Amino acid sequence: MPANNDIQKGNEMANKLHRYLLIIGALFLLGKKSNAQELSVVDSVDLQRYAGTWYEIARLPNKFQQDCAGNITATYILLEGGRIKVVNRCQRKDGDSSVAEGIARRAASEGPNSKLKVRFAPSFLSFLPFVWGNYWILDLAPDYSYAVVGEPNREYLWVLARTPKLGEKTLDGILERVKKQGYDLASLIHTKQSY
After folding, report:
1. Cα–Cα distance between 7 and 13 in angstroms, integer?
2. Residues 156-177: pLDDT tens digits?
3. 135 burial via Cβ count (<10 Å: 0-12, 13-18, 19+)
4. Phi, psi (rounded to 5 degrees) for 5
5. Which of 10, 92, 95, 108 is deepest in the core (most CB within 10 A)?
6. Structural domain tally of the chain?
């Protein structure tokens, strides 16, 4: 039979753990951004035309790409069943290349195909909702020469193009439309492409 001292220590540990979980939960809720304005996406996407390689023109800083120095591309390959293979490449600061492969799928069968979910976690974790991130196509050129990808919290943003460079006037128009969607572009990174 455990001593009263051991039971008391166990109860103290449980209470501390409970307090930590409450604090973490509160911080998580406080950290969530709420935007009164709904983020709008393009009505629909021809995924056959969207497939292929895109060059990153600009992005908001994110933890996934903090080691990327430039030459960033995303390649989309259509798979059976409506899924899309995603291959992201970049040149790291040390000069080596980095490759990340993932899978994208439609976010909701009833919703527009411009709202996707993407995961880079191993497939055995795909049943967990939090491994799937939002990939919403916010802007798309009629000729599919550029695309803008974001997500509802406006923390992530990528401007993509079919060529390594995008005209200044075109980029300015894109960024103006993105600002109207409620994005803060003060920390926007213009990607270095040497292709």
Report:
1. 10
2. 999 999 999 999 999 999 999 9
3. buried
4. -65, -40
5. 92
6. 2
Query: What pLDDT digit, counting tens, does each position of 55-98 carry?
Result: 999 999 999 999 999 999 999 999 998 899 999 999 999 999 99
- 71, 193 in Cβ contact below 8 A? yes
* Token representation of residue 167: 């005209």
Kindly tell me the burial class for residue 19, based on how many C-beta atoms sit within 10 Å of its own C-beta (0-12, 13-18, 19 or more): exposed
Give the domain CATH number at 183: 2.40.128.20
Domain coverage including residue 98: 47-190
Alpha-carbon span 146 to 171, nearest angstrom: 9
- The pair of structure tokens assigned to 143 is 């000729």
Q: Which amino acid would we find at residue 65? A: Q
Q: Which pTM does this prediction carry?
A: 0.79
Q: Give the chain's largest Cα–Cα span.
A: 77
